[in-house]
Each structure stands twice: as C-alpha cells, then as structure tokens.
Amino acid sequence: MAPTTCLCIGFLLLLGHGSMAELQAERGLGLEPVAPSSSCEFTFDKLQPLEPLPKLKAEAGTVEHFNDTNHQLKCAGVFLIRVVVDNRGLLLPSFTNGGALIFAIKGSGFVGVTFPGCPETPYSHLKEGYVATVPAGDSVWIYNDGGKPLEMLVLFTTSGKANKLWPKNRDFILAGSSENGRKNIFNGFTVDFLSESLGISHFLTTKLQGPTDKRGPIVRVPAGLTPEQQPWLPASNSVCGTKVTASLEDPKPQGTTLLTAYDFPALKLVGLSIERGALKPNASHASPIYNSNAQIVLYVTGGSFRRLQVVDNRGVAVFDGVLRQGQPLVIPQYYVALAQAGKDGAQYVVFKTDAYPVTHYIAGWGSVLRSFPVGVIAAAYNVSTTDALKIKNSGGWGTPEK
Ligand SMILES: *[C@@H]1O[C@H](CO)[C@@H](O)[C@H](O)[C@H]1NC(C)=O
Ligand SMILES: *[C@@H]1O[C@H](CO)[C@@H](O)[C@H](O)[C@H]1NC(C)=O
Ligand SMILES: *[C@@H]1O[C@H](CO)[C@@H](O)[C@H](O)[C@H]1NC(C)=O
C-alpha cells in the first residue's frame, strides 16, 4: 500500500505543478497522509470508547492515559492524555515529537512555550475553555495559579512531518522524571562531560539530573510562582511573539464553536483544530456529519450521549452505543456520525487532525441532500416528487448549528 500512496502523491505533485507542495508548506506541520500500516487495516471495523487507565500521581497533580488496546489513537496518528495540575503545581518543562493541542476543561493558570532562538518566551494565560498550542520540539511548562485544580486534555500528533520515526509519542523531559518513571534528558549524559560543557559545578549538574527526585512531572511550588518574563503582547509580530493561546467559546445549547487556523494561526504549526458542542437534554444533531480531511477524537466533558451511531463505507454501524464523560472515541475521516444527548444534555470537545477541517452535513442547509435535484432524489430513492421534496428539505430549514 505505502509505495502506491507515495507514487500517487508524486503524480499529484507533477499534475499540480507543485501546488500540493505549496499547500503542504502553507499548512505547516499538518498531518501527511498516514502510510496505512497493515496492523491498522481492521482497527476501525469496530470503534470502542477508550477507558482511562489508573491515574499516575505526581507531587502536585495526576496524569491519565487511556487504554488503547485496539490502537485506535495510534492508527489515527494521535496520542491523548488528561492532566490535572493542583493549585500551585508546576508541570515541568518537556518537548515532544509531535504538535500538541491543550484544551483546559476546568481551572486556570499560565503556559510558557519556548520557540527556538527566541530570547524571552512570553507566557500566556490559560483558563477554562482556552486552547494552547505547542509545536513539535518546542518546550512547554504550565503553572496553576488559579486556586483550584487545572484540568486539561492534551492531544499530540504522532504521525506527520514533525515525526519521521515510527509513529509513537515520545516526550523528552527537561527536569524531574516522568509519571511512568522515565528520567530527564540530562540523566543520559555523564556528570563530567555535562558540567564541563555547561560550565557549571558537579553539584549543579547532579541537580539538573535529579537522580533522586521522586516528585514526578508535576511539582509543588509552595511559595507560588510569578513569571518574570513579559506576558504575551499583541504588538509582537515575529515568530517569537506567536500567540499560543486562544479562547474557544462556550457554545450555545444545540450549537458548536470552532477554532481553526483561519482564526488562530498557531494551529497551523501543530496541524490540529478543535470544536466544542452542546446538545440540550435528549436532543439530537439535525443531520449526520462527517469530516473529510481529519481524524476525530470526541470527548464528552459534561452530560453524555445516550445514543451515538457511526457508519463506515460498508454501510455498517461500527459504533452504536452510549458515550459517557471521560471516554474518548476515535472517529476516522469520512465515517458518518449521528448523536443524541442523554437526559442531562451533552457538552463535548472534538479534536481534529487538520488545522483547516472540512465538515460535511448529510441533511439541512448547505448539505448533501439539499444540493441534489428533486428528480435525482425521486429516482435514487424510488419516491414520488412530493416525498423527494420532503427528503431534500429534511434536517430543518435553518443553517446548521454553528
Ligand atoms: C484494556 O482493555 C482491555 C479490553 O478492552 C482489557 O482486556 C485490558 O485488561 C485493559 N488493560 C488495562 C491495563 O486496564
Ligand atoms: C429525557 O428522556 C428521559 C428518558 O426517556 C425522560 O425521563 C426525561 O424526562 C427527558 N428529559 C427531557 C428534558 O425531555
Ligand atoms: C418503487 O416504488 C414503487 C411504488 O412504491 C414500487 O411499486 C416498486 O416496486 C418500487 N421499485 C423498487 C425497485 O423497489
């Protein structure tokens, strides 16, 4: 499969006189077509909500991974964790091999992202409903000054231009140790070599390595922390001044809000976008929908979906069930989904693996069915013209929930 894919892209490049290349450059580190691995071939024949694994505790917070036994996240080219930083907790700096998108579910704090070659990194405020982007290879730290736990979902890309190795999330920690006991990068160097190179004492070098530090990736800062750098200012227009946070507004009931690279250019650097949606109690979406250029990770943050059906190209429901809060569900591109909220409604976020996601509606304003001529519908479904009109105008007259 892989060589064919490569040939096709080469062919398109020739045909398009490099327009595809320009498009890719324009899209920064957007996801390349994932070379289909044979182990992913049947992964999406049955979708499964992922269950959280037991929380890994650090000194001032927790990190939660998800049980991805069927490799659904991996085959979608992403990795997801849920992080809770306690008040006055600091998530120690690290960098990863993929772009990351952070969504703050609850709480507030600030985030610092280091761009290479930039002398001072501005920090940005992060609060409930805010999004932060971290380009691949750039270091990030997060501090909670909000007085209550800061709860975040972090989605990383694992396959794309940013990672040319086997598609697997790798985070490189710069201080302390990871939640699963991995050491920081300084540990791998010998003390002599490192102290000579940095021009610091052996004592300080061993502090960097922190061999006996058992605090994990989130540490307590008892006296609190006030960043000495400047907060982000809108005036700066160099890469160093790239704004890394943005607000993703709370959607109205039966509505959605969307953040793409059109509104928030930093998303281009990570090749991701995000949507929030809300459904009233027992209400369903007005139309089945699909995304044509992005894999999706759906996560319910409040309430539940009492019924969610996802259909593949065989016309088979690869998922038909309930989706509860805290269970991520991977929905592949083109797979068509329809959801209904539970008795307490549903609030959810949708991570998308493209900075410019394209969503298609089957019914309603601007939809597939609405675009077909009545005659085509009558013939296709073997119905009268009157019934064809009913089908054409199904899904409501209004604009799709935006
Ligand atoms: C992950 O889920 C599978 C079944 O879905 C289960 O058999 C397995 O024990 C789970 N793994 C962990 C570590 O909980
Ligand atoms: C939603 O459905 C449940 C069960 O069918 C019902 O008990 C409840 O009253 C409904 N709520 C609303 C707001 O319609
Ligand atoms: C089309 O609909 C008509 C009228 O309902 C019915 O008699 C006919 O058998 C249908 N044709 C097919 C192929 O289903």
TrEMBL record:
Domain of life: Eukaryota
CDD domains with a match to the protein in the record: cupin_11S_legumin_C, cupin_11S_legumin_N
Annotated ranges, domain Cupin type-1: 48-206, 246-389
UniProt-listed SMART domains: Cupin_1
InterPro entries reported in the protein's UniProt record: Cupin_1 (IPR006045), RmlC-like_jellyroll (IPR014710), RmlC_Cupin_sf (IPR011051), Seed_Storage-Functional (IPR050253)
Signal peptide interval: 1-21
Keywords in alphabetical order: Signal
UniProt name for this protein: Cupin type-1 domain-containing protein
